[in-house]
UniProtKB/TrEMBL annotation:
It comes from Umezawaea tangerina. Residues 1-27 form the signal peptide. It comes from the Bacteria. Keywords: Disulfide bond, Hydrolase, Signal. Transmembrane segments: none annotated. Residues 36-256 form the SGNH hydrolase-type esterase domain. Disulfide bonds join 57-82, 123-131. This is GDSL-like lipase/acylhydrolase family protein. It holds the Pfam family Lipase_GDSL_2.
Length: 270
């Protein structure tokens, strides 16, 4: 009998295929060190519980780096991810784990640099116009300010880990465009459009920087389609005011299924 986990992964694979997510014929990564760097989307915020020794970084055993590492025991995971990390934080505190023994590096960062938290807060508590202004400001940073910083970061990663495959995983669209409840606060249709616009601009800016730097970009948006927050089968957390930092972050299914699955097809022989 197939397990629930395998059925879920198969479902994600079917969704990815139907939406045109490319499955490249990459050679498998040679075992060695796997260094995971990035922010809350990489550390697993939203995919409860968190490892007690990770403190404010909120590293979850269900995060995509740890899920992938469990399935690849020949690799030694160095999980440097931390909730709230900016590009500068990654440069200053996370790159020290890289070296010639590193064979795989995954990166998800940039959301805090474009003002993710401020945009979400404004769109949940302010007017439609205020939400639009916040989203537009976030998009401006995503297109003009963040890409040069990311190109510099990716160059540092490649310099420090010359033998590694570098995989950059982006961000999903956050909110289902329908009218379903989000929990404690349900944004209007206009706000949902602005939130998803900002998320799209962020991922597109990251994709551009990754292409310029010659590293692999994985677009997670197609696989999350119809499974955003506030929908009928969400893989992204809705609005729980007692868990504010988890709002609009992937849940267990989003991490263990979508992110881990898409990373796996980038690193395994398929």
């Amino acid at each position: 009998m197939r397990t629930a986990s395998s059925l879920f992964t198969a479902a994600v694979a079917a969704v990815a295929a139907s939406l045109g997510v490319a499955i490249p014929a990459n050679a498998a990564v040679t075992p060695g060190d796997y260094v995971a760097i990035g922010d809350s989307y990489a550390s697993g915020v939203g995919a409860y519980p968190y490892n007690s020794d990770s403190g404010a970084c909120k590293q979850s055993p269900n995060s995509y780096p740890r899920s992938w590492a469990r399935n690849h025991p020949a690799f030694t995971l160095k999980d440097m991810t931390c909730s709230g990390a900016t590009i500068a934080d990654v440069e200053n505190t996370q790159l020290g784990a890289l070296g010639t023994a590193t064979r795989l590096v995954t990166i998800t960062v940039g959301g805090n640099d474009v003002g993710f938290t401020d945009s979400v807060t404004t769109c949940l508590t302010g007017s439609d116009d205020a939400c639009g202004n916040a989203a537009y400001a976030s998009a401006w940073r995503a297109q003009l300010v963040v890409p040069p910083k990311l190109r510099a970061l990716y160059a540092q990663v490649k310099d420090r880990a010359p033998n590694a495959r570098v995989v950059v995983l982006g961000y999903p669209r956050l909110v289902d465009p329908g009218t379903g409840s989000c929990g404690a606060i349900t944004p209007s249709a206009t706000k949902r459009q602005w939130l998803n616009y900002a998320a799209d601009q962020t991922s597109d800016g990251i994709r551009s920087a990754a292409g310029d730097a010659g590293v692999t970009f994985v677009d997670v948006r197609p696989a999350f389609a119809d499974h955003q927050a506030c929908g009928t089968a969400p893989w992204i957390n809705g609005v729980d005011l007692s868990h504010y930092s988890e709002i609009f972050h992937p849940n267990h299914d989003g991490h263990a299924g979508v992110y881990t699955y898409l990373l796996t097809i980038q690193t395994d022989l398929v």
